[in-house]
Every structure is written in C-alpha cells, then in structure tokens.
Automatic annotation (TrEMBL), chains A, B:
PANTHER family: BLR1072 PROTEIN (PTHR36505:SF1). Gene3D superfamilies: PRC-barrel domain. It comes from Sphingomonas rustica. This is PRC-barrel domain-containing protein. Pfam families: PRC. It comes from the Bacteria. Residues 26-99 form the PRC-barrel domain.
C-alpha cells in the first residue's frame, strides 16, 4: 500500500487518484469495463454483474461481445470466479478459451430470467459449483 | 429451496419467477432498491453499491435519502455489512439509528473520489473494520 493511498486524513479524500485505478467501482459504472483474453487480446466488455442481494457478492459477470460469426452484440454470463482483475490495465482477464465462451449460454435481444435454473445452466456449462439462489 | 426454484431443466429458465423476488440482481438494476429501518419505516433507497473489482464484493452501499432538514436528496455511503436483505419485502433493512446515518459522511451534488481515505472515513464513522483498497 502506498503512502498516498493509505493516508486516512479527511482532506485526502479530495485528492485525485492520479493515474491509479480505484479498486472500488460503483455498480452503475461497471458497464464498459474491458475484458481481455489471457493472451492480452481484447475480448469485449463487462455489461453487468449479477449480484447476490444477501451477500453483496458478484456471482456472475455478463460480458458483452460483438462480432462473433458476423452477428451483433451478444451477452454471455460467466461465473465471476472465471474473471481475474488486472490492476495494471484496469480490466478483467478471462482465462478460458474464447471458443468455449462462444459456445456457452448467451442471449442477444431477450435477456433470460436469471433464476436458479438459468444460473445452474451457466454453472454447469463452465463446470463450476452451483450457486444456491433460494431465498429461505 | 422450493421445487420450482431448484428445477434445473433448461426449459425452466423461461418460466416467470411469479411473485418471488430473485436473489440475484443485475448491477444496473440496483438503483431504487428500497431501504427500511428496523422498525419497518421507509428510509430511502439504494443508489449504488461500491464493488471491489477484484473480489466482486459489495463493500459499501450508497443510500439515497431525501428530505432531511428540508434539503434535497443526499447520498450516504454505508458499510455493506450494516444492511440486511429481507426477502419477504425484497428490500434492505438498516439496523442503525436514523440519526447516526444523518450525521454520517454524505454528499449532495459532488460525489467524492471513493478512495482509501474516503472509505476509511466511512468505516471509521460506523466503527467497522477498515477495507484495504490497495491494488498490489
């Protein structure tokens, strides 16, 4: 932690963060965050996070990708644990093969109800543990 | 978990969730989520969550409250752990005294840079553990 960032005086709140990205992002500013492949190629951007209201944790990230097979923009939900944040470039890196993503659950114009069944479908496709979305 | 929610067939994704709230909320739909006091009185709404880009966790919730002392809408950041989600009413309940909130860090027209110094100020005010926002 740098001295500038760890400064806890009230006045420091007014100091611009210069060129350092901020580790916090407002939920209404997530749209557009860049996403790259592990090779560093631009893949698309984050459209939204699907957030567990109880825990506050981002459970899925919905990526917006364009140009696959000549079609328009499509939306690809991905388990959040498959994204890693790279502070050096202030973007996410996805460590799966692009073709795996292209074959995964997605939509173009009609977003699904992101309920237990759909969440299970996404988790199953990517081979991660299912998320319990029951309310009780 | 009810049978309806635990159904994992693909076709179930198209079934409307009826009157049950969904545990997941899209980050671009958080604005407007209701917030009540522990007595059940309406307090305001969530404007946004401040999300840790690395962990995906909501670290602070920014509440939008109006009418304090006759002024317009103001924004009050609160450590996320001070909110609890009530699925019965699909809203958050804040367990602190309203006057404590009114005296806390807030802004009206000029949002602060939500950096380490500001985050520490919020955490200190509410007496919760500081959050490390260093990028390294």
């Amino acid at each position: 932690m740098s001295d500038a960032i760890s400064d806890t005086s009230d006045t420091a709140a007014a100091v611009p963060a210069a060129d350092l990205p901020n580790l916090l992002i407002a939920s209404n500013k997530i749209d557009g965050t860049k996403v790259a492949t592990r090779d560093g190629d631009s893949l698309g951007s984050v459209y939204s996070f699907m957030i567990n209201k109880r825990t506050g944790g981002a459970t899925y990230a919905v990526l917006r990708l364009g140009g696959f097979l000549g079609m328009g923009k499509s939306y690809y939900p991905l388990p959040f644990e498959m994204l890693s944040y790279d502070p050096a470039t202030d973007r996410y890196v996805v460590t799966i093969d692009r073709r795996l993503l292209e074959g995964g659950p997605s939509w173009a114009n009609n977003p699904p109800e992101f309920n237990q069944a759909y969440a299970d479908r996404v988790s199953n496709y990517y081979g991660v543990a299912p998320v319990d979305l029951s309310l009780s």
